[in-house]
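Propose amino acids for all 307 sites.
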């Protein structure tokens, strides 16, 4: 028998972006079915939700034990800025909110050439100066004006492109920071997305497009997990329960989930998690917040980590 995870049907269960859709549609289907049969929906719906939650959220809320000794603490802020909606007001609001939280390392996705700026170098320099994060990297694929970006209080010793699939926003990069003489390895990623509303040129999305998109995302994850990293952050475009998430979570620790907040969405309009901060299993998370006041369709994630 072919395992379900290799089934040709699997991509269609991971379309928005995966398990959250199945979760809520299953509960709604049970509610409708029991209502049509004039039976109380309470018990079957509760049983379904409980069983699903136990399956998907197993192991959340468990933080590692550590020896009692001093650690350097680093605060990481992760945010998909949504290309700022090409709106300078959104840029200003984002910077104001960032400066309220004083991150040591700022990891952005869909960052780019917002309104009226002449080139990618100028926009990165401006953002660095206004956030007070002197070290930065924003080097999208030649010809692109959007991508991932990192700004830091700590010197960037080296950087490397893990993948760039010739997309305006989908890429992953790895960095080595000098944190007071200690090397810290971080990966900032934005995995392949699927436009449910069709492409910008008016063409409709087909089943083949979906399969191709999810195949690319799977390839990106396979490349990503081969790289060493103390911290992995970014937009997976996939939720807990998907093969993409589980592949990464098997290697690194999901900080939001470890804090017992795994059921909280990171998308402002769709009740699903797309954005994550992962750490190596023995790194200690000291604090975690979900930031909901950014002018973006994503929420920010803020974690303080003892390295």
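Proposal:
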């Amino acid at each position: 028998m072919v395992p379900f995870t290799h089934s040709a049907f699997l991509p269609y269960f991971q379309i928005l972006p995966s398990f959250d859709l199945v979760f809520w549609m299953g509960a709604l289907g049970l509610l409708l079915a029991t209502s049509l049969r004039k039976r109380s929906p309470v018990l079957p719906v509760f049983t379904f939700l409980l069983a699903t939650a136990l399956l998907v959220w197993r192991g959340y809320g468990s933080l590692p034990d550590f020896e009692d000794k001093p650690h350097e603490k680093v605060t990481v802020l992760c945010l998909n800025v949504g290309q700022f909606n090409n709106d300078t007001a959104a840029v200003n609001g984002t910077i104001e909110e960032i400066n309220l939280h004083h991150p040591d390392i700022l990891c952005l996705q869909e960052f780019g050439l917002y309104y009226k700026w002449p080139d990618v170098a100028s926009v990165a320099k401006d953002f660095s100066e206004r956030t007070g994060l002197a070290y930065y990297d924003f080097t999208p694929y030649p010809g692109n004006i959007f991508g991932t970006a990192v700004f830091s209080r700590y010197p960037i010793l080296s950087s490397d492109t893990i993948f760039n699939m010739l997309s305006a926003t989908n890429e992953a990069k790895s960095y080595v920071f000098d944190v007071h003489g200690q090397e810290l390895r971080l990966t900032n990623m934005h995995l392949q997305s699927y436009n449910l509303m069709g492409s910008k040129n008016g063409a409709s999305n087909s089943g083949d497009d979906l399969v191709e998109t999810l195949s690319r995302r799977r390839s990106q994850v396979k490349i990503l997990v081969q790289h060493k990293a103390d911290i992995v952050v970014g937009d997976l475009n996939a939720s807990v329960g998907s093969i993409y998430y589980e592949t990464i979570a098997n290697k690194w620790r999901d900080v939001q989930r470890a804090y017992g907040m795994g059921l909280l969405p990171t998308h402002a309009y769709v009740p699903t998690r797309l954005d994550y901060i992962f750490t190596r299993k023995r790194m200690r998370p000291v604090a975690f917040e979900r930031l909901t006041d950014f002018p973006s369709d994503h929420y920010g994630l803020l974690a303080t980590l003892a390295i």
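Confidence is low (pLDDT under 50) at residues 1-18, 196-207. The CA atoms of residues 73 and 95 lie 23 Å apart.
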